[in-house]
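Session log. Operator J.P. requested a structure for one protein chain; no other inputs attached. Running the standard single-chain path with token output.
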Amino acid sequence: MVADLESLDATIVQFDPDFQIESIKPKAFRPPKDWSNRGQLSRIILSVLRQASEPLTTRDNARQLLIERALDKSDQRLLRIMTKPVGVALWGQRENGLVRCDQGPGQYLLWEIALIEGPRGAFLPISRESHVHDRNIRVFFD
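Structure written below.
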């Protein structure tokens, strides 16, 4: 790939010897438009949180998303890019009452599935089938 870029640079200089190659700005990386259908990001995040044994940070959620989507989990740039939409999705699910967050180490927030108190005092994860407005169920989140 480096050889290809050097060939391209040489070709540009042939046509314009005074052109400053360094003035070409790199394109920002954008995930493909079809990488996620509407709601798929939230479904994967909620699935990851349901399977987690402890609360996860937004970055940990993003890393698990990369694993679920078979993307390169060691690519730090991609991880930084995907952390933002994961955070937006988590805040949206918090507004829906499906997840809750607590202060974690440093500036990190720790995310987990919100729990409800069901019949006989059992704590259950909230699902779409849960009747949050039922008098017998109390929701525990901020």
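Operator note: The mean pLDDT is 78.
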